[in-house]
Amino acid sequence: MNFNKRQSDTGQTGSGARSKLSLAILLALSGSVLSTNALAQETDQSETKGLEKIQVTARKTVESIQEVPVAITSVSAVELAEKGMAEITEIQTLSPNTTLQRSRGTNSTLTAFIRGVGQQDPLWGYEPGVGIYIDDVYLARPQGAVLDIIDVERIEVLRGPQGTLYGKNTIGGAVKYVTKPMSGDPEFSVKASVGSYGQRDLKMTGQYPLSEQLYVGFGFASLNRDGFGEYLQSDLPDQDRENYNKDVTAARLTLEYQPSDDLFFRLAWDKTDDDSNAKGGYRLLPSLLTDAPVPDSVYDSYTSLPTWNKVELEGISLTAAWDINDNTTLKYIFADRESYSPTNIDFDNTPLPIFDVPAIYDDEQTTHELQLNYSADGFSLVSGLYYYDGESCGQFEAILGILGASLGAPGLTREVAGCSNSNSTALYAQGSFDIGEKWSMTLGARYTKDEREATVDNGLVFDNVYPETGWVDGYIRPDGDLVPNVLDDEDDWSRFTPRVGVEYQHTDDIMFYASYSQGFKSGTYNPRATTAEPAADPEIVDSFEMGMKSDWGDNLRANLTWFTLDHKDRQYISILPGDGFADLNQRLANAGESKADGIEAEFTYLATDDLTLNLNLGWIDAEFTEVLDTDPTTGELFDKSDRFTISNTPELTYNLGLNYAFDNQFGDFVFNANYYYRDDYVLFEEDSLLTQDGYGLLNMSLNWYSASGDWTAGLHVKNLTDEEYMVGGYQFVTPDPTDPTDISKYTPGLGGDNTLIAYYGDPRTVTLTVGYRF
């Protein structure tokens, strides 16, 4: 049975009709653009009056977005502010075929998918499929990757494998968070926001020149909001009962030194503390073991765990750049980052310890990158050496206390702990060169050597066990190792990932391109292993892409992309048959393959000097072609791909937006509105019981700028129609294979209860932001 949250009837057509209609519109628009080639004005883009020239660093050098033969969306600081976007997850509304959402039980863990490629399970040891970067520094773990937008210049979303310039774990794409450079002038700005659910935010940024060559900059943010719902236990203090609340403090300090025109140094430090409560999920089925009713609100929950939660992030980076001459730059980037996250996730969401999972995530990473970049007429080169050293450790307790009591034990816990430590060394180069008056080529390659060591401790304890003494009041953890070591191994892999592209500059403002690129996600060990199983090999994605970047006169920009990809050696996790509800046995192997074909379109139209219209559209047909498993009775391999669906990947996404500027005696005003639609999608790949129906989000903002330019204000309304939509969940129930739609025939899953849980996106919110710049 699928549980679907449906929006109110708005007279829209079904998802299939919408998909066909949108494709027809896209093809018609494409044909119109191509057929009007003779009417295009062949002017240099820098001379156009209306269309903004957008600079990006997608290829690790500054270029116009219209000259980059990659499907990329760039969102500027101005656009982010005028739309009231506060978190990196909101960028998904502006990038076709992109999913960026908060993951399940925490506010700061990111689920990222691009073009149907990503990684849903955030456990240590599993590698992401979409790379997240802060100023070219890679964030290896999804914990803490839901970045708040503070002192940012732009956010770039690169779609498709980026294996040459960005390396492993970018098989779906990459998201780049680019902070603002310093201007060299004294600056200070402050913004305060109040809004729905007791929102109260304060952001301060500034910079000051210590000398003509030395500058210091800072940013600070305190972000607070009451919960959208609550934990319904009456014995919890008020602040501990808040569900989906926010309590984040973030700080950033930067020192820039430019002793000459040819030398540049930047030292940056940042720290984030997220003390928001753990998120409780919404039970979609009544519990078999407790009489707590299903809550009235999707944001209400129950729990038998403490509701505190913590994510601590801290990092330092050093960037040094030397312009050897007008054409050549040598650049070095060092970064060291660490994160620590003790968390409480109640899988069953009842007041009883049926299936509780307190956990600790502890990560450290160090990276070094040396780049040599060259640019001249007709030729450019980006090359470098890269080194990554990371330690990712964790521990979780699957507390099955009620089941233990039924067996006559004080409790029952399956404890899993371990580390997945890796280092990676890479050599890369990518060059673009002219092969004719209008033709050019891009050739790139990266060689990567990956090494990984892994340990796993896994076993049963016949008691309710928590990760640390004091986790709950009065708890004292026993000394010593409670469960045995089941895996202690190491392995290594090497991979050559190429990129080949050809570009045709039809006019100064119209470019066509085609490319082949490959990416890989690192091999890994099963962090939940119960035996000394071997590591899974890397996943491989081969992608072909054709596109057009075009500006038509002064008022129309049309960027179109078609892509197809093959995703091979997918690291599939199969559940092993066990003897009872206490089993948590899994096997990890390269058993899956999938493919996807899609279209992406981004249009900007300046209807008048004051009115801008935007359309971003993505369509994708993604499916599993093979998933191999072993029959536990016969030992024979069989294909069960018919039970699998690509998760977190709607067939159709689109965003319709407008921006209207006007002024009067009170100052300048900008009104913008957008409608973002996501087609239906599943939350799990295998036999998903959670399907979110297609839904749309309507957002509106009104911004004001004082005549002096010192004061700003913005009123932002998000999810105006208050849609309810699922972004994550857990399913630990088993439908009857003869009648999977009959809830009464569900059999209990792990813990002995019907655990079918959903987490939801934000409800309607209204925010007023006032800013002043000194």
CATH arch. level architecture: Beta Barrel
Radius of gyration: 26 Å
Largest sheet: 22 strands, antiparallel, barrel
The total count of strands amounts to: 41
Structural class: mainly beta
Regions with little confidence, pLDDT below 50 for 5+ residues: 1-48
Strand content bin: over 45%
- What is the name of the CATH superfamily? TonB-dependent receptor, beta-barrel domain
Helix content: under 10%
In words, what does this structure look like?
With 774 residues, this protein is mainly β. It has a single domain, classed as Maltoporin, Chain A, CATH 2.40.170.20. Helices cover 4% and strands 54% of the residues. The chain contains three helices and 41 strands. It has a 22-stranded antiparallel barrel. A hairpin with a 2-residue loop joins strand 5 and strand 6 (117-118). The relative contact order is 0.14. Residues 1-48 have low confidence and may be disordered.
